[in-house]
């Protein structure tokens, strides 16, 4: 049975790889440029991924537009730790299809590029892809905390992404002296407050 399931997944991936050009790119040359840069190798997940449930697989929202109360799309029970091996396998409309080691399901990476260039799409997916195990890039003072998925004042926004993943909601608050943000994590029942990209405080819901 397990062998049969694996063959079904393999057939699906091969079928996806043979699909026609997607609607992500404005031209075939831009798509080819992106494929050459990102599709020929294996990557590591640069942050913790908290996918949404999606028919036949999972959805990773890189646009920041999915809100549970409005869309009826909910976080799945799984959490993909940073440093997991990931391979981009093809495109589908406004999403990039990916396979993550240890999971048979296909992951859809939702992107929002407007100009349709390879550089635009690369900038978006670059948020979650690393060419090497990402923990080595974390500041020494924060490395152990990130490795254990904890938060501390002074953490950068990227270190928070590595520890907890992207927030469910993010709001920028007006200020004349700094960039103030409030991030909400529903599953942790937590509000995080950042100033100029660094954690200053948090509050339990």
Could you describe the 3D structure shown?
The protein folds into two domains: 2-130, no CATH class; 139-204, Beta-lactamase Inhibitory Protein, Chain:B, domain 1 (2-Layer Sandwich), CATH 3.30.1450. It is built from six helices and eleven strands. Helix 5 (140-147) runs parallel beside helix 6 (157-164). The relative contact order is 0.15. The longest helix has 16 residues, at 2-17. The chain has 205 residues and is α+β, with helices and mostly antiparallel strands. Helix content is 27%, strand content 27%.
Number of strands: 11
Strand order of the largest sheet: 2-3-6-5-4-1-7
Q: What share of the residues lie within helices?
A: 25-40%
Point out poorly predicted stretches. 1-20
Indicate the overall shape: globular
What is the rounded distance between the termini? 45 Å
Mean pLDDT metric: 86
Helical region count?
6
Total domain units: 2
Return the string of H and E elements. HHEEEHEEEHEHHEEEE
* Largest sheet composition: 7 strands, mixed
Instruction: Return the structural class.
Output: alpha+beta
Give the amount of beta strand, in percent: 25-35%
Query: Could you tell me the radius of gyration in angstroms?
Result: 18 Å
Q: What kind of assembly state do the chains in view correspond to? A: single chain
